[in-house]
From TrEMBL:
EC main group: transferase
Region (Disordered): 362-381, 416-442
Origin species: Streptomyces diacarni
Name of the protein: histidine kinase
GO MF terms held by the record: ATP binding; phosphorelay sensor kinase activity; protein dimerization activity
Length: 442
């Protein structure tokens, strides 16, 4: 609502159209002036006395200027100045003088910033010069009353208008700042929602996609058996494929229930969950061997020493998910052959210990036409791996390369730092720690 109110077009007032309050001021001034004129309450004229009605001409001009005191500055005040001089020369009415002070006030409040400053400075200058002339010319104490009257006519309305203008400008600035703050808060909320949706999509892909890929692979294998192959070997293959499909279906449903439970209960107190770690790589590769069903083999090489310090939980979780996704991609896209998973410690400039992962899977020879993958993929796995690694300020590369011996392989290489670097900004470090806690809760 705040954003809509900030962006909604505002209807600008029509130029020269009198405001309702200005009409009321002009009418009250005209009625008051006429009443004073009827009662004969007017000062003596400075020039020779003329017709008695002549004093109503400056009053009429001042009332017309008051009609546009808000919408036609500085012209309203420029018209009122000679009208006030004429009023002093022909016999002043108090109503005309009051309307003139209101024009001074409106000129400072509603005029441009430059005109407002000019009116304020001009009022101060006229008051000072007139007061000095009175005191120097007459040397009488009664002149102080005229000095006070001059200050009341010129300085009081202009300074009052300046103060109200300043308060109005500050209020407008505060409203604009509040609208900007609300807009930034809305943008932050949308970014937080998008980040949470991305995290949920990544987690859903990691815990379910590998099971669904195994189901797709083995269901394809079962469907590929022709009706003519009805011997014991075909029945055993069908039974094995259906067993793998059932096992992955059950595991996928369990993972889905766990994820739904985490979404419904953010505290996770009702259902404790185990965070995957590198100790589960053997079981992960064992399941991959069972799902492969062909000449694909999976080999794990762990070069970590038994005395190495333990890695933080977010690092182990990210490493496990990267290997899981790489192995799933090898099941879907790799050519028959050996898939190797290498885990080794990594040192950054000899001071920061981290983890290095490398998963290689064979590709078909370039001169051989490649068949379609055994299970479809949309590329979300690579995106999820890269997001997980970047959350920990690591690096990940994935793509085809040539291994020793001239073999074409798909290589996934990830480097995960085990701790934050000291040369990063404090805000970044805090953000990464929040991401680590979030990954741990997953």
């Amino acid at each position: 609502m705040t954003t809509a109110a900030a962006t909604a077009p505002t209807r600008a007032p029509r130029p020269w159209r009198p405001h309702r309050d200005d009409v009321l001021i002009a009418v009250c001034g005209a009625v008051g002036g006429l009443l004073l004129w009827v009662l004969g309450l007017a000062s003596d004229p400075i020039v020779a006395r003329g017709p008695r009605w002549l004093v109503l001409v400056p009053l009429a001009v001042m009332c017309l200027a008051a009609l546009v005191r808000r919408t036609a500055q500085p012209y309203a005040l420029l018209v009122g100045l000679p009208a006030q001089v004429a009023d002093l020369l022909t016999g002043s009415l108090l109503a005309t003088l009051v309307l003139f002070t209101d024009l001074l006030y409106a000129g400072v409040l509603y005029g441009s910033a430059r005109f407002s400053r000019a009116v304020l400075r001009g009022s101060v200058a006229v008051t000072v010069l007139f007061s000095a002339w009175l005191l120097l010319a007459f040397h009488r104490a009664e002149m102080l009353l005229l000095v006070a009257a001059c200050a009341g006519i010129l300085l009081v309305p202009t300074t009052s208008g300046e103060m109200i203008r300043n308060h109005r400008d500050k209020a407008a600035a505060e409203r604009q700042r509040a609208e900007q703050t609300a807009l930034l808060a809305e943008l932050d909320r949308k970014q937080a929602i998008n980040a949470e949706r991305t995290r949920m999509a990544r987690e859903l892909h990691d815990v379910v996609a590998n099971h669904l890929s195994a189901i797709a692979i083995h269901s394809t294998a079962a469907l590929s058996l022709t009706a003519g192959e009805s011997g014991p070997s075909s029945q055993d293959a069908n039974r094995e494929a259906l067993g793998v499909i059932r096992e992955n279906s059950v595991q996928g449903l369990a993972e889905m229930r766990r994820l739904i439970g985490l979404l419904r209960n953010a505290t996770g107190a009702d259902e404790p969950t185990a965070t995957p770690s590198l100790d589960g790589l053997d079981a992960l590769l064992e399941r991959a061997r069972a799902r492969a069903g062909d000449d694909r083999t999976f080999v794990l090489t762990d070069r970590r020493a038994p005395g190495d310090p333990p890695l933080p939980t977010p690092v182990e979780l990210a490493a496990y998910r990267v290997v899981q996704e790489a192995v799933t991609n090898a099941l879907k896209h790799a050519a028959p052959g050996e898939v190797t998973v290498a885990v080794a410690p990594h040192r950054d400039d000899g001071s920061h210990v981290g983890l290095c992962l490398r998963v290689t899977s064979p590709l078909a020879d370039r001169e051989e036409p490649g068949g379609p993958p055994r299970a479809p993929g949309a590329g979300a796995g690579l995106t999820g791996m890269r997001e997980r690694v970047e959350l920990l300020n690591g690096t990940l590369t994935a793509g085809p390369c040539t291994a020793p011996g001239g073999r074409h392989v798909w290589d996934v290489h990830a480097v995960l730092p085990a701790q934050d670097k000291t040369d990063r900004a404090p805000g970044t470090a805090r953000g990464n720690r929040r991401n680590e806690r979030r990954e741990t809760e997953e």
